[in-house]
Structures are given as C-alpha cells and as structure tokens.
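Typical record is below.
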Amino acid sequence: MSSTKPSVLRFTLTSTENPMEVMAWFFPQGTTLLNRTEWRGKEPRSCGLTNARFRPYSAGSHEIDFGEFLGEFDIEGVPHIAHDEVLRKIQESPRFSASIKSSFMAPRRQRPLVKLVLSNALSGTATDGFGTRFININNFTPHLQQVILDELTELVSGFVEGRYSIKNMSNDELVFVELNDSLVDCTPNEQGKESRFNCLREYVPDSFLEDLAKRLRATYEIEVSIVDGPDAGLLLRPLNPPNRQ
C-alpha cells in the first residue's frame, strides 16, 4: 500500500474460491487492484494485495472474507541501486562468487536451477540431464501475464527459502539475483530462429520489481533493493544471516 509512511496490513484471508481465481481478482491483467473508497482509515487507491500464502481449498462461492486482522506493520520504501554499484559492492569483498547455484537461506542438497520458458507447447515442467528444471508456459494460456508473474514470484520465493537456484552473484553479506536471465522465449524456434533471452521486461509491468520487493520484505526477514539497469534484478541481504555452506 502507498502513503506518506508505507505499511503492511496483515490478515487471515478466507475464501472458498480457487486460489488462482482469487489472485486474478486482486491482480486483473497483471496490475494490482487498489481500493476505490476509504478502507480502514486509508485513503482511496492506497491499498493493494502484496503477498498471499494459500492452503488447500474446497470449491464453493466466490465470497472473500479477510477474517482476523493481524495488525499493521510499518515498512520503508524499496531502495534502488545501480547495477555497476552492485558489482563493486560484491567484488570488493575478499570472498565473492558468480554462480547458477545458491545456498542463500537453508542449506539443501538439491536446489534445481529453474528457467521459465514461453512456447507454443503445452504448459508443464521438465528436467534436463543437468538437473535444470524448465517450467513451460503456453503462449495461449489465459491471463498469460498473471501466470508469468505468479511463476516468477514462486521462483524468487523458492530461491529465498533455499528451494530453487537462480543465476546470481554473491559475497558473504549479500546476493544479487539476476532475474532477466530467468525467462526465455522459445517461440522463434518454430520459425528456425534462436530463442530470445533477457526479455523479462517485455512480459511484466514496470511495477513488478517494486511489488515483488515489497512482498519479499513483508514475508521474510531480509533487506531487498531493486537493481536498475539492463541486467535488472534484486539485491538481497538476510537480516539474520545463516551459516552458508
């Protein structure tokens, strides 16, 4: 939500509708739905959903109940940093690495590198001989942009939790996640052309990184900055760093 001093309102939301339908309602055509009138003392067009976790549901009506109000928590604006400055910060450390693997949070034996792929093939998941997981998204999928946003959000959340790997650079204090590398458009292959890389910006709204950063900060104990430039991404720093292996 936006105001002079941004904050997060947390609720236990209950709905008997399919979770994908709920997210589509809150994010029509990939944009964040804002309140049209004053709500809980907040001015119109100042509140929007920034993060949600789903539990198993049973089909029923589309009635949404925000349920128990858990409290209001202040957050600061998301800082921005230039790509060159990120490289300087990482490389000035006596220990830094550039990798497609990561142990950002919890040490795990398996953290598959994940790529999102756009093509005309059926949507689904496959793994190559190197253990890379490819999540194919059919170009004709309804609400395509929202599906891409949901997959990207799950990918970055999984990276923070130590479940997935994304191309990154890191030192002992921070990790630069290169999100431009996470989406590949393979549609040109059907015409005998090369796949298109680093095309993420074409498929997500300009506000995506800002919204994603706010969701991560509201969910995890991490500092998040937006990295501007052609190799855009997020700079992550744990508030309570784990023992990295």
About this structure: The chain has a mean pLDDT of 77. The CA atoms of residues 22 and 137 lie 20 Å apart. The two ends are 37 Å apart (CA to CA). The chain has four helices and 14 strands.
